[in-house]
Amino acid sequence: MTDARALGADEAAFIAAARSHDAARFALITERHRRELQVHCYRMLAHYEDAQDMTQETFLRAWSKRESFQGHAALRTWLYRIATNACLDYLEKRNDRTPVPADLPGAGSELHYLQPYPHRMLPEDPQESVVARETIELAFIVAVQHLPPRQRAVFILRDVLGWPASKAADALELTVASVTSALQRARVTIRQQLPGRRLDWRSPAAHELSQDERSVVRSYIDAHERNDLDGLTSLLRDDLRFAMLPDPGTVTTTAKDAVDGWVAGGLFQRGHDDWRGITTTVNRMPAAALYLRTPDNPEYRLFAIAVLHIADGKIAELTGFDATDKPWLDLPPAL
Known about the structure:
It contains 13 helices and 8 strands. A 6-stranded mixed beta sheet has the order 4-3-8-7-6-5. The protein has a two-stranded antiparallel sheet with strand order 1-2. It has helices spanning 9-20, 23-31, 34-45, 48-64, 75-93, 128-131, 138-145, 149-160, 165-172, 176-193, 211-225, 229-235, 255-264, and strands at residues 100-101, 109-110, 236-245, 251-253, 275-282, 285-292, 301-311, 314-322. Helices cover 45% and strands 16% of the residues. The chain folds into 2 domains: 9-193, no CATH class; 211-329, Roll (Nuclear Transport Factor 2, Chain: A). Helix 4 (48-64) crosses helix 5 and helix 8 packs across helix 10 (176-193). By secondary structure, it is of the alpha+beta class.
């Protein structure tokens, strides 16, 4: 994210479009940054649809401020600055975009507004720091939400995107000392939220799923299709963390209690026992899209998506999302 030169081809073309008020040319130049800016907004907001809106707001603000761009910084840097401040303005107006205390004892706090991020919307040729897997996984996105908004922005700009303190300070209209202090506090919170996870976001990071992860997802789907409760239980760790959003109640539970709870809630019972599934990926994480066929419907209809964190061949975390009415997940509505 460092600026290699004061005025490159992108910057010169942008200035020419701005001076000629050529909206079509402006859109063509800025559009190539959409996906990475949307990932940035998603990290700030943890909500895919909000990230889409704020990315569009970024382009609207960029157009209205186009004549202020002089090419002293890279166009990408300028757009990131606008996107960051658009997200901060949005968060300032919302009081429902922070973690809330969990309803269940010992469950900490929850993010009822969390949405998964579709794989197809990630940048096609990403810079390592933009969409390294560790910085797009659900656990990371949730951890970042525990930071106050401006501290969150500092952490993402400095530790995820690798901006120097002076550039982050300029983008947020803060002093370098304030940025340094905010980053130190943010790192403490992130360490508390992600115990045992690697915290060096700029070292080489994985992008693809491992063979072990793919195997576990296939087994998870197979257990659903065969209504194999013992097989499903064997895939879960005994300290499983489970959430079904947007319902409240992130819990740490044993594998048996988790499956018993799903059965008690009606799953794998008559009318909810005819499953099909497909393997997919969201947030660069393994996921299973589950389809249910009910007695009154000849098709298997999209029911939910289960996003899995797999450790040592077992499902350690399972975050379920209602997958209906989310066409942006790019999943077939029926099988």
